[in-house]
Amino acid sequence: MKRARRAAPGPLPVLGLLLLGALPGLWTVLLRREAAALPEPRSPAGQPPGRWGWGRSPAARGEPGGGGQKTFRTLLAVPAAATDREERDGEERLAATDSRPPAGTASPVERGIFWSRELEEQVPPGFAAEEAAAWLSAARAARVASLERGGCGRSSNRLARLSDGSRACVRYGINPEQIQGEALSYHLAGVLGMQERLPPMALALVEARGRQWEPVREELRGSHWAEGAVVSLTRWVDNLTAVVAPAPWGAEAGAGRRLQPLSAGELVGLPPSQLVELVQWSDLILFDYLTANFDRLVSNLFSLQWDPRVMRRATSNLLRAPDGGLVFMDNEAGLVHGYRLLAMWDPYNEPLLRSVCVFREGTARRVAELHRRRSAAAELRRRYRAREPLWARLGFLSERQAELLQARVDFVHRHIAHCRAQ
């Protein structure tokens, strides 16, 4: 009896077996496609080479200075080449979600380019107008009880102890335009609404036989100050400490790299203390651009060409008060001396200004008003004459310098409008 022949398998079981055998290969292909979509490994700073970084502070690298700053730039994992539209849309939604502040956290920025009111309220008050006016009145009336060397910059300056018990730095400029620049910068800060960041400053006339200087007549002979010279008296402030520039201007800066703009997207996740400091830095950089002051952060940037670690060190003429407020010190390079050297220093000052796209609303409003009225020099002159009795001894800006001030106000206004358009 013949054994029955086994029926051949139908087409469907055969297809199933083939698919089962192909699964390992298909899984490998899918894994490779996912790996290809991941971002390329990046440097610890999270930036490609050849650009100004947003990286770690010196403290984060175990070096002195800084303050354990986090990075500004949120590093989002966006694939190098998405394979289809759905994958791209998913990544864009993820990026949009990651750039928002955490739930329940107030945004540090309002309307895209202005620091929030809540954040501005946390900025230390600095030198209140009433306090500054009281000190200036007392300093002008007081006698100089003693003069000491050291603590006030160059060797020609002195630390004065006044008869009312207060102390002041007496600055004797290399030439009168430096004292003029110091005085005009102080009053321009008043026009801009940021004078509380500068210590109170008054002018004084050196007269060895005058009432104010009579107690230190012998010290004046050893100072080599010219009789009748105009000096500045700046209130001495105790317990000031050095300030290291934060990102994007600080630790990761290097020669030949480009400054990245400080904008709202870079502020997500930063602690309040850093945000409060950045509010003050935004005013400082705008102020230094208007005055063309090269003797602060700009001088550090210039020094990068031979000192690549200079941005990890203290910023020139900038100190921090015990309450965390920044103090804009020694502004004698501003407006007069700085305007003579624009060609040399603007290649550093202008990129610094462009690196800021978040501003105090009050500062932006004052800039807009000075731009609209074309009144920058007129407002400065009015305030200077009203508040400085010795203004005529040094004079005011030349016509050309007044035009430069207005042009720089106009440039700042256009930059703010550009940031708003972004």
TrEMBL record:
Basic and acidic residues: compositionally biased ranges: 83-95
Signal peptide (residue range): none
Protein's name in the database: FJX1 protein
GO CC, alphabetical: extracellular space
Organism, as annotated: Acrocephalus arundinaceus (Great reed-warbler)
Annotated segments matching region Disordered: 39-108
GO BP terms in the entry: cell-cell signaling
UniProt xrefs under InterPro entries: FJX1/FJ
